[in-house]
Design a protein that fits this description.
about 130 residues, mainly alpha
């Protein structure tokens, strides 16, 4: 069974970590500087940041609990970026400013759209049941 943070998993962990730090910084600046402008958008960016950091930590560990947490984090991310991506086009009044997930992560080169699916695929590929 390959370790979660080995081989391509190292790249995945690094990208998750960088995106987590970037999203944390952006949401913190937005929430502290102008919270009234787009509280939903900025709060969702903070949620995304937390999920990226949780996924980063989970992908670094190979314990069953870390795998479960990683699966939940990646699944919530995937759902979040799809729902917010759709809503940012169809109900743009809900998002007067951009979030990490708005327009399917366009402001972050669509990494927020791709990353959770890569995370889920990596967790599946490296699962103990996949080794047998």
């Amino acid at each position: 069974m390959p370790e979660l943070a080995s081989g391509p998993g190292r790249v995945l962990v690094a990208v998750y970590g960088v995106l987590g730090v970037a999203a944390t910084g952006r949401s913190a600046v937005q929430l502290l500087g102008q919270p009234e402008e787009a509280p939903l958008a900025y709060s969702l960016s903070l949620l995304a940041a937390v999920l990226y950091l949780v996924a980063t930590a989970s992908l670094l560990r190979s314990t069953p609990r870390a795998r479960r947490v990683g699966l939940v984090a990646c699944s919530v991310e995937a759902a979040g970026v799809v729902v917010v991506g759709v809503l940012s086009y169809t109900a743009s009044d809900l998002f007067p400013d951009k979030t990490v997930w708005s327009h399917f992560g366009q402001g972050y080169a669509f990494l927020p759209l791709v990353l959770p699916f890569l995370g889920l695929a990596w967790l599946r590929r490296t699962s103990p049941s996949a080794a047998g």
